[in-house]
Amino acid sequence: MKEICISSKEAGIRLDKYLRKLLPAAGSSFLYKMLRKKNILLSGAKAGGQEILKEGDIIKIFFSDETFEKMRGSGEADAGRLERGRRAYREAEGIEILYESEDLLFADKPAGMLTQSDKGGELSLNDWLVGYLLEKKGSIDAKQLPSVMNRLDRNTSGIVMCGLNYAGCRFLADTIKGGGIRKIYLALAEGTLEGRGELKGYLVKDEANNKVSISDKGEGKPVVTRYRVLEKREAHTLLEVELESGRSHQIRAHLAHIGHPLAGDIKYGGHPHKGKSTQYLHAYKLIFPVNDKEEPEMSGRVIESRISF
After folding, report:
1. Which one of 102, 134, 138, 186 has the largest count of C-beta atoms within 10 Å of its C-beta?
2. Can you give the pTM of this predicted structure?
3. Where are the alpha helices (DSSP H) in the chain?
C-alpha cells in the first residue's frame, strides 16, 4: 500500500487527472475500476475521481509494489526531476538553511527565485531541495521526493517550509491547514506610517494580469492585514506585517491601497529603490503552535531569518 500526501503544488487538481499523471501506464478505465473497488481511497473514503484535491489530502493506493511500479511506467520523469535537482543545487545562489531535522527543512529563499517550477520549466527552490538531499545523502527514494509546502512570490524573499519525507509533508500540510502557524513579514513601505494599524478590505484577483486589487466594499474575498512600525526613515517606513487571511499579493495590494506601496514594487505603484524594481518584502518569521503530539521539536518553535533592508 502506498500513501501520498498532497502538497500545495498538487492542490486544485482533479483526483483522476492526478492519478493519470502519477500512474501513466495504468489507463483511465483501470483507475476508475480501482476507485470503484476502493483500492484507491481519498482521505480514507471512497472517491469517484472528480474530487478536487486539497492540501493535506491523503491518497491511499492498495497495489502491490510490483503493480505500482508497473503502472508508473519507465520512471523517466523521476530521473528527470533528480537531474533538475542536481543542476539547481549547482547553480542556485543565496539560499540559507535556517533549521533542519529528520523530517523538516526551513530555507531562506532569495528574491528572484521561484518557489516551485512553472510551465516554463525554470529551476526552483523545490528543485534545489532535491539536489541538496542528493548531495547530502548520495541518493534518495524517487517515490519519497521532498516537497516545498508553502509558496512565496518570485520576488518575495524569506522562509519556505519543506517536508523531507512523507511524515514531514503531512505534518506541515496539517499544521498549515489548521491555521496554527503565524507568518510574519518585513516590509519597507513608501512614506510615513505611525504606530500600529489593522487594514480591512476585500481582495479581487485579476487572473489575466496576475494582479489583485483591494475594495472597501463587500466584493471579493475579505482580508485583514496588521502592521506595526519598526523604524521610520526619511522617505520610507519599515514595518512588521502579519496576515490574518493570507491571500496572494495581499500585503502589496493592501499597502498600495492606503497610499503606501512597497519600495521597489512598480506593479503596485511603488518606485525603484536602491536600484531595485522588485518589492522589498521578506517572510522573516514563523511561530509554530504549542503541540507536542506530532513533531514535538516544533512545539512553540520560532524560525527566524536574518535580513536588513
Report:
1. 186
2. 0.75
3. 15-22, 28-36, 65-72, 76-91, 125-137, 166-177, 250-257
- Amino acid at the residue 83: E
**Which architecture does CATH list for 183-284?**
2-Layer Sandwich (3.30)
Q: Do domains 76-179 and 183-284 have the same CATH topology?
A: yes
Instruction: Return the SS3 of 143.
Output: helix
Question: In tens digits, what is the pLDDT along the chain, a chain of 309 residues?
Answer: 888 999 877 888 999 989 988 887 777 888 998 999 999 999 999 999 999 999 889 999 998 877 787 777 645 446 677 888 999 999 999 999 999 998 999 999 999 999 988 777 789 999 999 999 988 877 676 556 788 998 899 999 999 999 988 788 888 988 888 888 999 999 999 999 999 999 999 999 988 888 999 999 878 899 999 999 999 998 999 999 998 877 889 999 999 999 999 999 999 999 999 999 999 999 999 999 997 677 889 999 999 998 878
Architecture of domain 76-179: 2-Layer Sandwich (3.30)
Residue 239: closest CA among 220, 212, 258: 258
Provide the residue ranges of all domains of the chain, joining segments of one domain with +.
2-72, 76-179, 183-284
